[in-house]
Every structure is written in structure tokens, then in C-alpha cells.
Design goal:
With 287 residues, this protein is an alpha/beta fold. It is built from eight helices and twelve strands. The strands form four sheets. The chain has a six-stranded mixed β-sheet with strand order 6-5-4-1-7-8. The chain has a two-stranded antiparallel ribbon with strand order 2-3. It starts with 18 loop residues before the first strand and ends in an 8-residue tail after the last strand.
């Protein structure tokens, strides 16, 4: 097995307010069904269904900031119709227990790890986390979310900026070349958060935001192609997941959306809450 992470030590035990950076990848387990309606227009009868394929979580602080402590690939119970490799980095065999070289776990185990981190009070950091939460089928309270897509956003411009563009402009880094990597994306979001705090402390955030959007308009808000081994390589953009709960390859997600267990008040009668203070919601993999 390829070791792409290092588990937390007892000295690194997370708690209330611990910042962790998250990114996920997904695959398609059902293609959309499209028909022509009476007006001759294409109409989606059944949407594409996505399934969680990889969850990466990196340390948000300390000596090993940016080092992953979770990098789970999710064993697929359903036939995969599209690995979405250019977006996900997932290839044939990655999710197959007989062939995978990765840390392969069940959806329930991957979910429970995040469930525990959530209940411990950790703050989930990432870029465009709504999509990650939808694919993962969890609900995270706003107080525990740090989303860099909101930090580098001017409402009047009506356009949110991609991770790749912000990394290129602010960090001078080329990411998402040919494919996505959830560790790289989580780590990049963490670096952007540090930059945000730096600009905020220096009192230059507004100026930086104006510069970002000015350059963004000139570049059509896309990072330029990069060179790798002498070849020009275009970046890939993450396909948008459908509306809340729609098209997710998870139990109960087709119509109800994320269903993370809801935090229960301390002191409830035995059997009314989980061992970590939650009761699994309808559709949760933990039920």
C-alpha cells in the first residue's frame, strides 16, 4: 500500500477549534438519462449520480502543517460508470479491494472519521466546501467552516474564483495540472487561508481583492496553461455537483441532501444519542 499520510499522534489530538483542511474526489456510478421532449429540447429524466471516492484531510497547524493524516479511498459497492479521472485523479483499480494500492476503506469508516472530527469541534477548511460536504453527505455548522472561496470574493463582482486561479496569482503555484489531487487541493486552500490572514493583518486585503479581480478579467478568471517536461498542460476544473442532495451516490441523498448526525444536548437519556453525542440522521451511512 502506498502511504500518503501519517496518522495523528496522541500529542496532536484535535479538539475544539482545531483547524483541519479537507478536500474530496468523486466518481460517477450512474450516467444521466436524457430524452427529447415534445419541443425538441433535451430533458434530463434522471440526473448523474456521484459517489464519494477519496477523502483527504491535512493538518492545519503545528510543525507538520499541511501533512495529511487521512487519505482514504472509498471501496465502491456499485459499478463505476465514469472515474472522471481528469477531475478526480481516480483510475480503474483504485477503488477495487483486489487491485487498489491505496488505503481503501468503507464509506461508513470514512464517514465516521469525519463525524468524530466534527463532534470534537474541529474547523473544516477548504475551497468550495459546499461541494465537498454534499458529496460526502455531511452537514457542518457554519461556525466550523473556513471556506477560502468566500474570503477571496467580492459580492459586487458576482463571481467566485477557482482554487487554481488563486493559487497561480497569490501563491505563484501551478496546481491541478492534467488532473486533481485532493491532498494538493486541501494543502493549497490552507496556504490561501494563511495568505488571507496575512493580508488582513497588513490592512491590504481590499487592495489585493481589487487586483485579483482586475487580473481575473484579463485572464478570463483562468490560470494560464503551464509547462511540464517541455509540454503545455491545461488545467482541469471541477465539475459542479448538482443541487443539494441531488445526484449523490449515497443512501438517502437523492432527495434529502446532506444528513450528518445532529448534535444532541449533553445529558440525554441513554439510547437517544450516539457515543459521540450525535444521533445519525435519515440516510446517514452510520444508521
Amino acid at each position: 500500500m502506498e502511504k500518503t499520510y501519517r496518522p495523528l499522534t496522541p500529542q496532536e489530538a484535535p479538539g475544539e477549534g482545531t483547524v483541519i483542511a479537507l478536500d474530496t474526489e468523486f466518481v460517477a456510478v450512474r450516467q444521466p438519462e436524457i430524452e427529447m421532449n415534445s419541443d425538441g429540447e433535451r430533458e434530463t429524466i434522471r440526473p448523474i449520480v456521484y459517489a464519494l471516492a477519496r477523502v483527504s484531510v491535512v493538518r492545519g497547524s503545528g510543525e507538520d502543517e499541511g501533512l495529511p493524516f487521512i487519505d482514504d479511498y472509498i471501496a465502491s459497492k456499485e459499478p463505476i460508470v465514469d472515474y472522471l479521472t481528469s477531475y478526480s485523479g481516480i483510475v480503474h483499480g483504485d477503488l477495487d479491494p483486489r487491485l487498489s494500492k491505496h488505503n481503501l476503506v468503507s464509506l461508513k469508516i470514512a464517514y465516521k472519521k469525519l463525524w468524530i472530527l466534527l463532534n470534537l469541534g474541529c474547523k473544516f477548511l477548504g475551497h468550495g466546501l459546499k461541494q465537498d460536504f454534499r458529496v460526502t453527505n455531511i452537514h457542518v455548522p457554519k461556525a466550523q467552516v473556513i471556506d477560502t472561496i468566500d474570503f477571496f470574493f467580492v459580492k459586487a463582482r458576482l463571481r467566485r474564483l477557482s482554487l487554481a486561479f488563486l493559487a497561480w496569482y497569490l501563491l505563484r503555484e501551478d496546481i491541478q495540472l492534467e488532473t486533481h489531487d485532493s491532498i494538493e487541493d486541501a494543502r493549497t486552500a490552507l496556504k490561501l487561508y494563511r495568505k488571507y490572514l496575512e493580508y488582513q493583518d497588513a490592512g491590504i486585503l481590499e487592495t489585493i481583492l481589487q487586483d485579483i479581480y482586475r487580473v481575473g478579467r484579463e485572464m478570463n478568471f483562468k490560470a494560464p496553461a503551464a509547462k511540464k517536461d517541455g509540454h503545455i498542460i491545461e488545467r482541469t476544473e471541477t465539475p459542479p455537483v448538482l443541487g443539494a442532495g441531488e445526484g449523490l451516490g449515497l443512501p438517502g441523498a437523492a432527495s434529502s441532501g446532506p444528513t450528518t448526525p445532529v448534535r444532541k444536548p449533553i445529558g440525554l437519556a441513554p439510547g437517544t444519542g450516539g457515543s459521540f453525542g450525535f444521533t445519525p440522521g435519515k440516510g446517514s451511512p452510520l444508521r
